[in-house]
Amino acid sequence: VSPPDFNLNFSTRSSKRGGGTAFISSSILSAKPVLFDHFTTFEYTAAVFSSPQILCVTVYRPPKQSAIFIQEFSEFLSILHNCFERIILASDFNLLIDNPSDPFSREFLNILSYMDFSQHVMQPTHNRGHTLGLVITYGLSTGVSSVVDLAISDDFCVFFGITSIIQQETSVRTVMKRHLTPEVAAGFMEVCRKIPPNNLSASCDFIVDDFNSGLKAALDLLSPFKIQKLQSKLTTPWRNENLKQLKRNCR
């Protein structure tokens, strides 16, 4: 089915004849198929490319409206967002994205915006003048170069390119740690026994400071501080405690 030196990734419809989703990639690129949850309102095919790691997904949503599509697609994006830093969704959603007054399309775009996904197609992709074919990315700087009617379908072909990888900002903090083991504790007690007694004629503050200095010197000798940099993970604000509890209840 695929041309020479290309690989075909596809998913068939299990309950119906025909249809399904697929994409073709160069055999030079290492692509590993991945499967997430099953969804009833749309179909998808997904694979992970390496060096750098990019998740590529093709999505098809049938024209018939479904009340739970937004809910299912939100869950799908949440799964992708938690697992991958760079994502491409090339899709036919059969949504009137070009109609700003369409409430279904507005809710769809709001979900993309809330989860930091970007939709790049702004021109018609269908022979009736609507924008149905979408290119959605996360963590990638992407530009649509052209939309061409190849006269083989009522949908047009969307050409786009990835210009750069967006580095997601994460906070880094530095911590200092001592590794305290039973051996360190035993050595510390031995050092403490060898600390000479203080001159009781000295002031109380001097005695306390001198004693603390001796303890710190013993710790620094037996278990010196080690500096470690910790990188905070990117947060997913929609995964609040209420949602986590609901998922636990489902399990």
TrEMBL record:
Domain of life: Eukaryota
SUPFAM superfamilies named in the record: DNase I-like
Cited InterPro entries: Endo/exonu/phosph_ase_sf (IPR036691)
Record-given protein name: Endonuclease/exonuclease/phosphatase domain-containing protein
Organism encoding this protein: Nothobranchius furzeri (Turquoise killifish)
Gene: Nfu_g_1_002789
